[in-house]
Amino acid sequence: MDWTNVAVASITVVGTLGGGIVTQVFAIRSKRIDAKVQRDNRAEELRELIRKEATDEKRAVYASLNTAAHSCRTAVRHYLDEKCGGRTPDLAKFEAAREALRDSYSRAQMVVSDRALDFASEVNRCLDIAHRTALELDENDPVAVAALYRFLDGSVGFGVRLLRRAIREDLGIEPRRRCRSRRPSRLAPGHAPRVRREAKA
User: Fold this and answer.
1) H-helix or E-strand spanning residue 170
2) Which whole-number Å values give the CA distances from 123 to 94, 107, 176, in the listed order?
3) Which of 8, 40, 115, 181 is deepest in the core (most CB within 10 A)?
4) What is the DSSP letter of 66?
5) Whole-prediction pTM
């Protein structure tokens, strides 16, 4: 027997089988690596989708809050103009604007930053004062009427502008500015108006 030929044949068979096994191992490993890469990519895509949805929701909430604050302030002014101008105010429209702000503020409490929420809380409080004052106001009292107009143009208007700035900063639309006070009531000119009531007999 020619052992040389047998040895060569054996080596050839082992080499062929070994090469196939090595190839298969590398193929399996490559598939595992590809599968992991795909899982990582899907996970990153999911995280990015979640971040985008959160950002979109925040933008929607901020837009609603900003619009509601402006609309409520405008509604109080219109109500006051009509009441003091001898016309019958549209109470339903007036109340709808206040309710829209309440709804927007409730949603904002769940998603906005603490800093923006500080301004939103103060603007909501100021507009609540303006709303109640307009309802109780004696349109024949020029001092009270003038005080409410000043409050709307001063404290409320200033607070709404600060809220808009805080929203834009929180969304990264404009750079954040440092401010000594975080609450618009401490920055705003003017004070909450007081309604004088007649003493009951």
Assistant:
1) helix 157-170
2) 17, 15, 19
3) 115
4) H
5) 0.67
